[in-house]
Design goal:
Length: about 130
């Protein structure tokens, strides 16, 4: 599918446009995905596709449940080392994900732990790619 070139003001785009998932109800996909490991394994087996489609990393990021983001970023380390600008996609994808959370005070302990782990991973990526 031919996509519109990315805009410079990424954050003002709706997430479905940013992730090249326009018209797809991907937030329901996140909630109903029963076997996260199966999805992560699929992505691991097909990660060579990331170099062929500049939007695929974003799409996969948006499809994953919050608890799978850290393993996804860890499994994508090789890709991120080849395309360090995609680390920004990790931040933007996290931004979109956190926007969908309601009030922080109503977040469960498990969800809060996932958010904390995502932030730790983002800091780790910043450490790795700060000089690139």
């Amino acid at each position: 599918m031919q996509l519109v070139p990315p805009r410079k003001d990424f954050v003002s785009q709706p997430e479905d446009i940013w992730a090249a998932l326009k018209g797809i109800s991907f937030s329901q996909f996140q909630e109903k995905w029963l076997n996260e490991n199966q999805f992560l394994n699929f992505m691991e087996r097909k990660k060579q596709l990331l170099s062929m489609d500049e939007y695929l990393f974003r799409s996969w990021f948006s499809l994953l449940p919050l608890g799978s983001l850290v393993p996804y970023m860890e499994n994508s380390n090789e890709y991120l080392s080849l395309m360090p600008a995609r680390v920004l996609d990790c931040f933007l994808g996290t931004h979109y994900r956190l926007q969908r959370l309601q009030e922080i005070s109503k977040i469960s302990e498990d969800l809060l732990e996932h958010v904390e782990n995502v932030f730790k991973m983002l800091m780790h990526l910043m450490d790795i790619y700060q000089d690139v």
